[in-house]
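FAQ: What does the model actually see?

It sees only this:
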Amino acid sequence: MIKKIILLFSILFISTSLYANPNIVAKTAIVVDYHSDEILYEYEPDMSIYPASMTKIMTSIIAFDLLKQGKIKLDDKFLVSEKAWRMSQAGYSSMFIMVNDEISVENLLRGIIVASGNDSCVALAEGIAGSEENFVLLMNAKAAEIGMTATKFDNSSGLNSPENYSTVRDIALMSKYLIKNYPEFYHYYAEKEFTWDRTGGDPITQANRNLLVGRNLGVDGIKTGHLAVEQYSLASSLKKNKRRIIAVGSGFKTMATRSSHSFRLLNWGLRNFDTLEVAEKGVTEYNLKTWLGKTETVKAVANNDAYVTISKKDVRDYRAELSYEGPIKAPIKKGQEVGKINVYIKDNLIKSVKLYANEDVKKVNFIKSIFLSLNYLIWGDV
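And it is asked to produce this:
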């Protein structure tokens, strides 16, 4: 028979001011819940854009990958080429490096992430791959691995190129990948400023181009962008308690609206939705009844963290049920699918999470199995 156990039903209704939309002015935007991957808001999310300096998110991801693999170290130093130096002389965002400077990977990363230095992008790319062109191959391979199906990178900095394009949907995907996979390095994105003790001059201190960082709003990243043809853009992330929201927008009219409307997107997602944990990978255990097993129950777990994001107006109608065909006949192998958790809003199934045995359960011996079977036939007791 089907076993159904209601796990969670009553949640306090939270009185809040709910808005129909975030009321922003942009060409394209998306808001995503980090944990559940639910899209909370989207406006033309698949419009092709020039990502400008949001490209630098991928530039840092390539370096972070190599750092995690031990192929480079933060204190490794790369020699600055004339090509990299010329980027600092062309009026673009720069770290202000000099030809033949030897600069550590960590300083180049901070120059890219905080100061948005195009010169530091080229220096890092050349130091890692020998040339910026080779580095771009790594960027595009990583984009394909992440699942960025509408993106192509043509340089490491995001400077003008018709062959350097993406969408806010892809950039949100890339942003989550960054935060999830490199927690030991993501803190660079929350730095308020970066001071570069440059060669041949006084140290230069530059503030983080993301004006939302450091304002005690909960925003800890990610990356701004600006091109005349694209106007202003921003990939941003806000963390509050256990929740995290990612927003990406492009086509903001001014630097000020880029910040204010991006925060409006983040705050809108935070205020209008709740994210609930359904199961924690390998930790949240459920005891399911067994039949002819040496133990009366088998422990079941989810293979992945499972979350659901729902509108706050629906929290009263949320419930999660444990469902399985049981009792489950032994023998049971660890890793065997044994049940699922079904999540409903009223009677609408919105998510189903598979559960797997977290242990082996052997079958009882022949004599005991006969006794249990007879007991069931006579008494109906399993």
